[in-house]
Amino acid sequence: MGKKERSMERMKSLRQKVFHLILTAGIMSLWTGCSFAQSRVPDVHYEPTPQLIVEEMLKMAEVNRNDIVYDLGCGDGRFVITAAKKYGARGVGIDIDPERIKESRQNARIAGVQDRVRFIEADLFETDFREATVVALYLLPELNLQLRPKILEELRPGTRVVSHEFDMYDWPPDKMGSLGRNKYYLWVVPVDAGGQWRWTFPSPRGEELFTFRITQTFQNIDGRIATPFHTVGPLEAYLIGDQIGFLLRYRPPGQKVEMRFQGRVSGNTINGTVEVHNGPLAGKHKWVARRHSIEKRENDWKKATFQGPKPKAYE
Asked: I need a labelling partner for 280 at 20 to 30 A (CA). Which of 69, 94, 121, 236 fits?
């Protein structure tokens, strides 16, 4: 091979190397671009909840050392850090912004609670937070609504949810507070108690059957109770997490009976007590009710179906 041929061969080899470098760089650039595109921009502009409001919200939620507090959109980590430092709780902060996660971890180390809290860079809508006993939010109204079905369907009954500034639209809070211009809300995730419940109770006439058809929307319950003599509505009915209670007044022949029921809903069974205030069976008795059917609801309160016009904040 002559000198000219060798020179042309080297040029060809060099062009091939340059081509491969450009191709590799292009592929890497494309891959990196896709990677950044998949990291979603935060839904909310970062604005921390004032520390005094954080403490009031944790107090409202009655946080204690047995709790696992999740902060969805944790910012600088102050919710879970305060819960760990003040109440001895464990905590998990979720944020899609890596800078916020870095800041939270540093703040946890400064506060000396890094062994009780952890921070995860993730999309809160794709995060499994079913272990939470308390959930803290400072999101936009539409994000609260977007998150609401996940809260109602996946969290255990009795889990407390606190939100700074924004509510849950037609899910009424169990408690609310304010300090200056700041508003904050508390909800307790309710058990699904709807359907037809039956139990028997002794009387001078023998065992008598009672049927309570419960209608439910979030934590609000109502319905009709069929006694052996007539059908009446419950009084003072409540549902807090998995705890249910109501007052029943009815009139057997020749008497007036008042019975106060309270119990815990677990699946298709309620276990609790009934206190009879008058009559031959006055006193406290064991109460067990079983669910025999579940109503088909046109508007499932666990899903994001709303009635009536939405406030402007939700449009």
From this structure: 236
CATH number at residue 229: 2.40.128
Residue 34 in this model has a pLDDT that exceeds 90: no
Query: Residue 301 in 3-state DSSP?
Result: coil
Same-domain status, 251 and 163: no
Report whether pLDDT(40) > 70: no
- Residue 204 confidence (pLDDT) above 60: yes
The domain that holds 165 is classified in CATH as 3.40.50.150
For 42, half-sphere exposure in the C-beta direction (CA atoms, 13 angstrom radius) is: 20
| Count of the separate structural domains present in the chain | 2
Residue 297: its pLDDT value, please?
Answer: 57
Whole-angstrom distance, CA of residue 231 vs CA of residue 295: 19
- Structural domain of residue 176, as residue ranges? 51-188
- pLDDT (0 to 100) of residue 219: 97
Cα separation, 117 vs 93, whole angstroms: 8
Q: What is the dihedral sign for C-alpha 297, 302, 306, 307?
A: positive
Closest to 145 measured CA to CA, from 173, 170, 176: 170
Q: CA of 148: how far to CAs of 73, 139, 163, in Å? A: 15, 12, 12
Residue 217 falls inside a structural domain: yes
The whole-angstrom separation of Cα 44 and Cα 10 is: 57
At residue 119, φ and ψ (nearest 5 deg) are: -130, 135
- In terms of domains, do 202 and 239 share one? yes
Compute the 3-state secondary structure of the chain and give helix, strand, coil in percent, each to the nearest 5.
30, 35, 35
Q: Percent of the chain scored above 90 by pLDDT?
A: 73
* Tens digits of residue pLDDT in 114-131: 999 999 999 999 999 999
pLDDT tens for 214-224 read 999 999 999 99
Whether residues 66 and 152 fall in one domain: yes
Please, is 38 exposed, middle or buried when counting C-beta atoms within 10 Å of its C-beta (0-12, 13-18, 19+)? exposed
Tell me: do 213 and 261 sit in the same domain.
Answer: yes
